[in-house]
Structure formats: C-alpha cells, structure tokens
C-alpha cells in the first residue's frame, strides 16, 4: 500500500498540523481547540506531538488508611466514580479506616532462552547466581545508592527447549521498568558471550507483578449500610453474596474488577503512573488460580461487613511520568504521599472503597439512580447544551424521568424556546 503519511514525523510541527487539519470537517474551530491545548513542553516527550488531550481531575475525600485521612486526586472521565470513592471511603472510615500492608515491592524481568540442554543452563545459573546479579547491578550502578538493586536470578522451564531466566530487582522508589530492562539487556549480552549453545530470544521486564502486592482490609458497621427499604444486615449479606458471585462467575468478575479499576486507574493516573502496567498486572493476578475471579472478598463478621483484597500495585514514586507531568508532582503533595509503598497502599485502598460503593448501589437501588444522577450532566453536554444551560436543562429533564438522547435533545430545544420567549 502507498502510505500517505509515511515520514509524518520528519515534518515540522506546522506541516504536521496542516496534514491533520486536512482530515477534519470544521478545521477552523478544531484548530482553536488543538492550539489552546498545545504545550511545547510535551513535544519532546511523545512522538508526533499534536496537542494535550484533556481529562478532568477531581478529589475524592473520606479515605482513611492506617489511621491517616487522605485526599485522593483522581483523573477520570466517568461521572460518579469520585462520588462513589468518597462514599465507600466514608463507610470504611471508622476504626482506623482501611488497614493496608505492602507484602512486597519488587520488580521482575525475564530473559527467554532456548537450549537443547536446559539442565546445563540450570546448572550454569545455579553456579553463577552471584555473578549474574553483579552484571545486572553494574549496568545501573546508581541503583545501589537508593535500593538493593538486582537480588536474584532463577530459571524456569517453559517447555522442552525454552526457558525463562527470571531476575528479581528492588528498584527502590521507581516503578523500575527501564532500570530492569537495562539490567536484563546487560545479562542477556553476558549470557550470549558465556553460553555458546544457548540462544537468547529476548529480555524484558514482566508486568506480572506478583512481587508488588498490597493487602487491604476494611470494615463498616452493618448499621451504616441500611437504606430506606433494607436493613443494614440484609445489605451486608447481599454485598457478601455479590463478592461470592464474582468469585464463581468470570462474566460478573470482569465487571466487578472494572469497578475496582475505576478508582485504581484514576488515582494511579493522577499520581503519574503507567496504568497499562497496572491493568495488565491486576487482570493477570485475577486469573492466577486458573480462572478469572473478582479481587475482593466481603464477609459478615458479627455486626460488621469486612472486606479484603490482595492486589498488585506496580507503581513508582520517582521516575517515569512523575518526572515530566507537573500535575503528578502536585498530586503527590495533595495526597501527601511520600514514598512508593505509601502510594501503593493508598491506591489499593481506593480500589476497596470503590468496590464497596459499587456493590452497595448494585444490591440496593441499582446503579442508575446514583450513577445517572451524576452522569446526566455529561449526557446533557454531549447532546449540545452549553455550560450555562446545563443546570436548568438537568432540572427540566428530571421531570421527564428519562435520560435518553432523544428526550434530552427535546428538553434542550424546549428550554431554548422558553428562554427565547422570555427574552
Ligand atoms: C453516586 C453515589 C455516591 C450517590 O449516593 P447517594 O446515596 O445518593 O449519596 P449520599 O447523598 O447518601 O452520599 C453518600 C456519600 O457519597 C459521597 N457523595 C455523594 N454525592 C457526591 C457528589 N456529588 N460529589 C462527591 N461526593 C459525593 C459523599 O461522600 C457522601 O457523604 P456525605 O458527604 O453526604 O456525608 C452512590 O450511588 C454510589 O456510590 N454509587 C456507585 C457509583 C459507581 O460505582 N459509579 C461508577 C460507574 S458504574 C461502573 O463503572 C462500575 C460498576 C458498578 O459496574 C462496577 C460493578 O459492577 O461492580
Ligand atoms: N512493560 C512496561 O511496563 C514498560 C514500561 N516502561 C516505562 O518505564 C517507565 C518507568 O521506568 P522506571 O525505570 O521506573 O523509571 P525511569 O526510567 O524514570 O528511571 C528512574 C530513574 O530514577 C533514578 N532514581 C533516583 N532516585 C531513585 C530512587 N530513590 N529509587 C529508584 N530510582 C531512583 C534511577 O536511577 C533512574 O535513573 C514508565 O514510564 C513506564 O511507562 C518502559 C518499558 C516497558
């Protein structure tokens, strides 16, 4: 195929912008938006930089973790997520709030090897452990100033000829992807020189973050869960059943975990983290027992509903986007987190609170009342209301009891007709 835009990256910014605008119907208006969000700081951060894509940031409140109250910056386009996080956090805020512990905070990488005699590779690695760890650490010497660096190497057979050399690293306050990748590539070259009969296929960190685990546990009194039509005990029982269903049905578990990630991603993005790494780690962990399962477990214990979750939170407090996104640093200050382990515990706790709010809504009034109550503003904007019209249109819409786009459009038109009539 004759690729029209091949070499796009070789043009200067204005030429690239013209090529992009050539594809848009209302190019003049679009250019105003693109120009308005342009920030030259970012042209050296990603390739073919065009402009900044905006996502709203808000603050969730009421989250208490290990006796400390947090403000949580959250970046999300989804209405009701921040309200739900504050809601779930409030329910879990008594008795010291959520108790969180970091089980371990390490990063792993793998070098994929191919050998007709895997046992000789195993023997070599066993005998040369310390040396391989040293090679890894020498590739990023500064790591030793603030962390333990590479700690161990171990072989794992994948089939008759392929094996993985797993390297475990303490990357300190960083997420560690680039640090680990440099180490792995150094070990890879070393092995290529050392082992004549071994083919080295590739070397890369793994996002299977089973060494970056956090455990969170929180409880709320059953009394607090009561609604106008249901006792707290029944609500608690139903939440517990909902978490059980997410353990036995992967179809439900997928949505259950999406609800947890509503909060986790929003906080992780606000704090400057790689959310693709988090997503892949979490979903891989959810299937670790051979079946995709919900990550939380809610049980009634006496007068309380108690929730628990163990989850991988591979994030960094230093490095990556935290170095370049000004808001990431500001958000660390808003949250008042001062190291990666505190941030891991905070983010995991957000997930637990988010899940409680979602499950409570689901087993009581359903998701639509609370969620749509807040989502309706976005729907009204999406259907053409201006910022000044939103509040009044939402009020008129509430009287119809509906929020489909046809009704919204009708209500906006009626509102405008009425406004014109009254000058
Ligand atoms: C939406 C609420 C909170 C309303 O809930 P409500 O009962 O109308 O709220 P309330 O007036 O009783 O307020 C309770 C607390 O919620 C917070 N809150 C309440 N309103 C606001 C607001 N405007 N802005 C900020 N915070 C708010 C606030 O902390 C408040 O405490 P208060 O300050 O009143 O003492 C509730 O219905 C809820 O938590 N729903 C869950 C919503 C949710 O999970 N949304 C995500 C989108 S749906 C989805 O993607 C995931 C899902 C559901 O599919 C996952 C799954 O299936 O498991
Ligand atoms: N599969 C994946 O998830 C991959 C992710 N990435 C990307 O890699 C980036 C994260 O890589 P990192 O190595 O974490 O960041 P980084 O490349 O910014 O490295 C962190 C830097 O901080 C320095 N540093 C200073 N003080 C430190 C301390 N106390 N602890 C640790 N390091 C300290 C380190 O020496 C290092 O140079 C993210 O942008 C991520 O998106 C890159 C490749 C693959």
TrEMBL record:
Oxidoreductase listed as a keyword: yes
Assigned keywords, A-Z: Oxidoreductase
EC number: 1.1.1.88
Enzyme class: oxidoreductase
Protein name, UniProt field: Hydroxymethylglutaryl-CoA reductase, degradative
């Amino acid at each position: 195929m004759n690729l029209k835009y091949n070499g796009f990256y070789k043009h200067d910014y204005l030429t690239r912008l013209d090529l992009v605008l050539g594809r848009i119907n209302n190019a003049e208006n679009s250019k105003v938006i693109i120009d308005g969000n342009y920030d030259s700081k970012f042209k050296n951060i990603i390739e073919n930089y065009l402009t900044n894509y905006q996502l709203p940031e808000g603050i969730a409140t009421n989250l208490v973790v290990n006796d400390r109250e947090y403000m949580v910056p959250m970046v999300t386009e989804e209405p009701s997520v921040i309200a739900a996080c504050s809601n779930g956090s409030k329910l879990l805020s008594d008795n010291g709030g959520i108790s969180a512990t970091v089980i371990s905070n390490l990063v792993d990488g793998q070098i994929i090897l191919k050998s007709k005699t895997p046992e000789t590779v195993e023997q070599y690695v066993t005998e040369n452990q310390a040396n391989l760890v040293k090679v890894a650490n020498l590739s990023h010497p500064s790591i030793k100033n603030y962390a333990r660096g590479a700690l161990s190497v171990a072989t794992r057979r994948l089939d008759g000829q392929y094996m993985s050399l797993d390297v475990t690293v303490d990357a300190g306050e960083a997420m560690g992807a680039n640090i680990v990748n440099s180490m792995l590539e150094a070990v890879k070259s070393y092995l290529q020189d050392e082992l004549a009969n071994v083919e080295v296929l590739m070397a890369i960190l793994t996002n299977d973050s089973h060494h970056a685990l956090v455990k969170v546990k929180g409880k709320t009194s059953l009394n607090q869960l009561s609604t106008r039509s249901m006792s707290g005990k029944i609500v608690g029982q139903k939440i517990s059943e909902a978490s059980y269903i997410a353990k036995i049905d992967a179809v439900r578990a997928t949505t259950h975990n999406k609800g947890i990630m509503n909060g986790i991603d929003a906080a992780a993005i606000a704090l400057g983290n790689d959310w693709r790494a988090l997503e892949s780690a979490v979903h891989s962990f959810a299937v670790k027992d051979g079946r995709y399962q919900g990550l939380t477990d809610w049980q009634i214990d006496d007068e309380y509903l108690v929730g628990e979750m163990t989850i991988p939170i591979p994030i960094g407090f230093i490095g990556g986007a935290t170095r370049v996104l000004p808001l990431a640093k500001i958000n660390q200050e808003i949250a008042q987190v001062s190291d990666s382990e505190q941030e891991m515990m905070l983010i995991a706790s957000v997930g637990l609170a988010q899940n409680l709010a979602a499950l409570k809504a689901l087993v009581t009034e359903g998701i639509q009342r609370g969620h749509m109550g807040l989502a309706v503003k976005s729907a009204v904007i999406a259907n053409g209301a201006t910022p000044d019209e939103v509040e009044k249109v939402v009020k008129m819409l509430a009287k119809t009891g509906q929020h489909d786009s046809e009704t919204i459009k009708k209500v906006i038109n009626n509102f405008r007709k009425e406004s014109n009539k009254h000058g």
